[in-house]
Design a protein that fits this description.
single chain, alpha+beta, 10 helices
Length: about 170
């Protein structure tokens, strides 16, 4: 199975001059944890993630811990609004790992595992073509295996949902 068979092509993106506030809105309302950062010709120049946004407050925590002081966590939370006013360029990761649309999906997974990332931009000649997440790969492999093993035996899915997933 190839990346192009599984990737999402309708990708939400950011630009380097996008306010972090706008990225946070996208992430929260669309339940995504990161966005590729692109320039005018869709060349991938970075990635911004929830972790990058929260890490912007971390140096103050790190400094307090280094000095053996207890950080004032509530004050740090209130400083979040300052982080929201920054531009993406200030927080984005400039080191971007990508895969190509014709790469096998397990190659993409190996890159994600090696670099401890959960999503990876798909680049075609340096330009954004899509994005692939660990969840996308897992669902695709599960579906392919399930279809091969059980064919049209979809009643099994309903039984599993009735017995295990729906009941609380």
């Amino acid at each position: 199975m190839l990346v192009k068979d599984v990737m999402t092509t309708n990708v939400r993106t950011a630009r380097r001059n996008t306010r972090v506030r706008d990225v946070a809105i996208l992430m929260c309302f669309h339940r995504i944890s990161g966005l590729p950062v692109i320039n005018e010709d869709r060349t991938i120049i970075g990635v911004i993630s929830e972790k990058d946004v929260l890490r912007a407050m971390y140096p103050k925590i790190d400094e307090a811990m280094r000095l053996a002081q207890t950080p004032h966590f509530e004050e740090l939370e209130s400083e979040y609004r300052d982080v929201l006013n920054l531009h993406v360029e200030a927080l984005m990761s400039h080191r971007v790992f990508t895969v190509g649309p014709n790469d096998p999906i397990l190659r993409a997974v190996s890159v994600m595992f090696a670099h401890k990332i959960r999503r990876i931009p798909v680049a075609d000649h340096g330009q954004l073509a899509g994005i692939l997440s660990i969840g996308d790969v897992h669902k695709a492999i599960f579906k392919e295996t399930f279809d091969r093993e059980f064919g049209d035996e979809t009643s099994h899915i309903s039984e599993v949902q009735d017995k295990h997933l729906v009941s609380s």
